[in-house]
Amino acid sequence: SFSSNPCAYMVPESIRSGMPLFYLPSNNTPPILCSSDPSCPQFAQFWRPVCLIDPSVWHKWLHTYRLCIVLEHDVPLPRFLHTASQNGRYQTVQSRHASATLYNFLKDWTSFVLVENHTYLKLVSSEESDKTPSWFYIIRVISKPTLAVIHLAFLGGTPGKLRYQVAEKLKAKISALKIPLRPSAKESLARVFIDGRPVDSKVRSEVPCCMLLQKPLEKILIRYERMPSEFGTVVFPDGTQPHTAAKPLRPTSSLVTTLSRYLHHRRWVWTASAQNCDLGHAAVARILATLTEMRLHEGFKFAHSSTGIINMVLEVQMKCCDEDMDHTCKNCRPSIIQYVLFPLRVTSAGKNNSSDDEGTDDAEGEPNDLESTLELIAECWIEPQHGVV
């Protein structure tokens, strides 16, 4: 067993100092030992299986918990977030600063690092004076900017009170993490004085490192990996379509189709150009950036971005809709709101198909710019819950 095996809890000095025990190659091969310390092989032999077990099956042997967090995005936002660069590619929203803060905290919180930025382990003793640990718990971080899921697992037999205390304390610590608010270029030029001394604008304020969610967002997150080919015709959740459809539609993502059975959703399509007034790509991109800023000011956070399509989420606490009852009803649960914003879409008059965000110029012989139309497209997906906002 763990507590009776000194090779399992005698942490080598190199590992105790912060070096990860393993690193995972990118080709899905078994974890490789990092340290050349002579005592590491025996220690690694005990902990190697922990790196290989998928969190989805941890519950068979361990007491499991999970935390879903949305990391604070890096600023400034990428230049080519809403519009494509010259090579036709979009940039994605990153959370490198918040991720580094989270990983540094977990490194300090735990006893040693199994895999850098991936798996951490904490040894726990029944008494503070006891040098021999009785239990341990594992922290596994599965992150894809800017959404992260933290899996927490305790050794079987760990007291329930201890598990609860650790889980609640971990939540509080992660929620309290801060990162400096980096100003924009314009703000960095302004000088602030306190007691007659200039203060660096980079340390004026801090923002939370992440937003802790109560709901499992990773299971209901709307992920568009590419621009849909059709926006004008409704595709029903069971895969059918109206008899009036002009042509068969391409199959939609199975994930989106499944979620459409559960989440209330609506799509808006606005025409951004007319025969006598063309806004132009730059103006439309500015509108998309403004919509993004509005959602950020409302409390939304970036959860996913790909090929110019961004998903922003907000968790709201529902209130009781009965006027005779206290609005803070215990039966009311939080609800997840997802706001999806698509990049500029160009459609051609008289054609059912449209060029997507990776599209090319109009075919030769059709130079008339009036035949193309610019469209702005947004979606809202809401988790149905009892109560009012």
Automatic annotation (TrEMBL):
It comes from the Eukaryota. One of its GO terms (cellular component) is peroxisome. This is Uncharacterized protein.
